[in-house]
Amino acid sequence: MKLLWKWIAGIVILLILSVVLVTWYYSRNWRPIVEAKLQEVVHNSTGGLYSLKYEDLDLNIGLGNATLSRAELVPDSAVYQKMILLKTAPNNRYHIKIGALKVRRFSLMDVLSSKKLNIKTIVFDEPEIHLMSEYHAFNDTIADKPSQTLYESIKDMFTSINVKDIQVDDIRFKYSKIEEGKSSDISLDKVNIRVHDVLVDETSLADTTRLFYTKMVDVQIPSFEYELPDGFYKAKFKDLRINTRDQNVLFTKVEYAPKMKKVAFFRQKKQNVTMAVLKFDTLRFEKLDFKRFIEDQQTIAAKIQLKNGSVDLFADKRYPKRPINKIGHSPHQELMKLKKLLAIDTVFVDNVSVTYHEFSAKYSKEGAISFDHTHGLLTNVTNDTTRLRNNKYMRADLRAKIMGTGALHAQFGFNMLSKQGFHTYKGMLGTMKATAFNRILRPLLNVEIASGNIHKVAFNMEGNDYKNWGEFRFDYDDLKINLLNKPEKGEEKKAKKLASFLVNEIIINNSNPDADGKYTIGKVDYTRVAEYPFFKTLWQSMLEGIKQCAGISPEREARLMGTANTAQNVVKGTKKVVRDTGKFFKNIFKKKEKEEETDVQEDREEEQK
Q1: What is the 3-state secondary structure (H, E, C) of 249-289?
Q2: pTM for the complete prediction?
Q3: Domain with 560 in it
Q4: Long-range own/partner contacts, residues 482-487 (CB < 8 A, 24 or more apart)
Q5: Across residues 290-306, what is the average pLDDT?
Q6: Where among 175, 197, 222 does a domain terminate?
Q7: Looking at the domain assignment, is residue 68 inside a domain?
Q8: Within-domain flag for 172
Q9: Mean pLDDT, rounded, for 483-488
């Protein structure tokens, strides 16, 4: 019995010794084999574009561990230039440096018996990644011969490679966009990446549950700020999370704004252009097609959410505005002009305030009109003509509080395939005090609404590149307007009061329906001014409806001018005040039927009378 135990112990010791000797042998003799294979795989899988360099390769076959120290994946610029000439060059190149690449728990027996490489964990230490992006038009066309897949590159060595987890922490990432030989860079620090369940075999690339062989990629990018090449704007966010398994992208504290203050912005621009400041607490993409986005730069998603934010637009009338023909530049027409495909099923807007600010050159004050707590949705946001053949309309259904008080509900329909930019818009504004609009009237037009009750505004309009038409209803009462001027005394003060009286009694109907019960409906037929952008054209069209409902007709304006003589006999200088009042109302309602007559011409007519 004692002899039997000796035999058993001897056999176990022999087996252990054999394993140790085999492990030692493979650790020593497989190293040159592995090194050669590594170089071969990198070269073959990239068409010779990349080479692999490293200081040391430590293999421990017994434990199933390997460490590659000071490794570097280097693109060959000469090979890349040759690939450009052959029209086989990719748009993206990578230069990667790694302090250490640690492979843990791989099975040698699986490799020897079935050529399957199974790895539990891969860890990257001190990684630096430089992505160089250079667009080539030939990549937009379908290649006659598909490029070699990763599996085809490794199938002679392995039948499959499976890695359960890859961990990459504190990546230093640099993105360089190269255009016409010039490079613009974006740098990121402390990027964290987790990759789960990587499988490279004969069937994995066709597996729709995987994105480029992976079951999940989770990316976290902390605080980021980037100055745009235009020299005026910067973009930033507090945090970015990407998860390919859930197909979600989440930005927090997103901001797009000028680098300088408002005064400096317009001083440098030297013209009255729109300055934009956009801020959102949350910007989320759901069910984003990452594969199409990465391969073709196409944005295809089920949902986008904009939550808790603000959009502020600024104009400064102290600077000249360059006249530009805006025909064909409506929002839906600009969307159709995008070079890359965009297809969003639904865009959700949740608590976003939109405010337009304008600084008056005449009165040196800033006025604003706001649409607060805007919420609603946009549907079928796409320039994909295939989708649009089934449903050609992009639609928007939005609600807001105008000036923080009046409940506004507006609906838009955009015919995306219309060559003349056909669109519709309808809506309703609920009860509110007209005095709320003094926030924009006082600074910009030096006038205030003394009183007024808006009961309802309803509009149903259609439009294209050249005209807007439709029906406008405006229900109100007790509308009174005061003209605001510098403090004056005596006759001039009396003249201003008379002018305000004439405005309220002659030009504007006090109510709709009026005192006689007559109700006026605006029949809008507005011809677009070519230099007016889309939203200004909408506003001008609705002002046409307001004028009709308020009784601001050419005949009433003529009556006002005819009353000037009487006013002049009563108070010295009143004629000029009344004439200025007429001009003021032309400015309020942006009357564009004909150019105003000059003061000299009006004085001559008065003399003739």
Answers
A1: EEEEEEEEEECCCHHHHHHHHCCCCCEEEEEEEEEEEECCC
A2: 0.77
A3: 475-574+585-608
A4: 482/447, 482/448, 482/449, 482/450, 483/446, 483/447, 483/581, 483/584, 484/442, 484/446, 484/447, 484/448, 485/446
A5: 92
A6: 222
A7: yes
A8: yes
A9: 62
Q: Are 185 and 176 in contact (CB under 8 A)?
A: yes
Residue-wise DSSP of 480-544:
EEEE--S---HHHHHHHHHHHHHIIIIIS-SSBS-TT----EEEEEEEPPTTS-HHHHHHHHHHH
**Mean pLDDT within 54-67:** 81
Q: How far apart are CA 178 and CA 79, in angstroms?
A: 17
Residue 244 is classified by DSSP as T
Provide the pLDDT for residue 567. Answer: 40
Domain count, the chain: 2
What pLDDT is stored for residue 290 in this prediction? Answer: 92
405 is a domain residue: no
- Are 108 and 61 a contacting pair, CB within 8 Å? yes
- Residue 595 CB partners (closer than 8 Å, separation 6+): none
Q: Sign (positive/negative) of CA torsion 186, 192, 196, 201?
A: positive
Find the range with the poorest average confidence among 35-39, 82-86, 203-207, 437-441.
Answer: 35-39
pLDDT tens, position by position, 422-441:
999 999 999 999 999 999 88
